[in-house]
């Protein structure tokens, strides 16, 4: 074999090995890149799921506060003829109001709450109106000393207020 033919065969073989080696390196890097991309995507999905679960728990807590306050509001209206009961239930209603407003603010800080801002805002508006109704019912009681009349003034109004919270909870589950 002449040196030119040997050089030519070695050169073709060498180029083939270089090509296969480069292609193998390209495949390895592509596979590693794909694995990294899939892993980071799964981490983002997992993080979003955790944040969504956290948002759902906060909304459920808000709903629990609202339900607990509804019970205290009912007690306030039906038992306000006793001054000690009135003060006790009024304090509980006010405490729950503070918790509700703090929880709304906390929920709004969650980046995933953007999709639910309209429902939260509607809840907050209706909730504010509900509290105004209860303030008016207390005025009615103080003016008339008729706790049944003040109870009739707001009866059934609170049930509609919690609908937005229920809708959010259903969507988040």
Commentary on this structure:
By secondary structure, this protein is an all-alpha fold. Helices cover 89% and strands 0% of the residues. The chain is rod-shaped, with a radius of gyration of 33 Å. The model has no long low-confidence stretch (mean pLDDT 77).
Topology diagram in text:
Layout (H helix, E strand, L loop, with lengths): L2 H76 L4 H27 L7 H28 L2 H8 L2 H5 L1 H10 L1
Helix pairs in contact: 1-2, 1-6, 3-4, 3-6
| Global outline | rod-shaped
Could you tell me the strand content as a percent range? under 5%
Largest sheet: none
The sequence of SSEs as H and E is HHHHHH
The rounded distance between the terminal residues' Cα atoms is: 78 Å
Tally of helical segments: 6
Uncertain segments: none
Spatial extent as radius of gyration: 33 Å
Number of strands: 0
Keywords, please?
173 residues, mainly alpha, 0% strand
What can be said about this structure in brief?
The chain is mainly alpha-helical and 173 residues long. It has helices at 3-78, 83-109, 117-144, 147-154, 157-161, 163-172. Helices cover 89% and strands 0% of the residues.
């Amino acid at each position: 074999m002449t040196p030119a033919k040997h050089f030519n065969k070695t050169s073709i073989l060498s180029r083939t090995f270089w090509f296969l080696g480069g292609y193998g390196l390209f495949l390895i890097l592509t596979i590693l890149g794909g694995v990294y991309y899939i892993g980071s995507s799964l981490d983002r999905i997992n993080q979003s799921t955790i944040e969504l679960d956290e948002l759902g728990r906060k909304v459920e807590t808000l709903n629990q506060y609202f339900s607990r306050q509804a019970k205290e509001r009912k007690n306030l209206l039906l038992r306000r003829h006793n001054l000690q009961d009135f003060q006790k239930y009024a304090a509980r209603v006010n405490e729950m109001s503070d918790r509700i407003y703090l929880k709304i603010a906390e929920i709004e800080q969650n980046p995933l709450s953007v999709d639910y801002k309209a429902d939260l805002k509607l809840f907050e508006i209706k909730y504010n109106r509900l509290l105004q109704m209860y303030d008016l019912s207390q005025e009615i009681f103080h003016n008339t000393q008729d706790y049944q009349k003040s109870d009739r003034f707001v009866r059934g109004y609170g049930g509609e207020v919690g609908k937005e919270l229920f809708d959010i909870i259903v969507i988040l589950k």
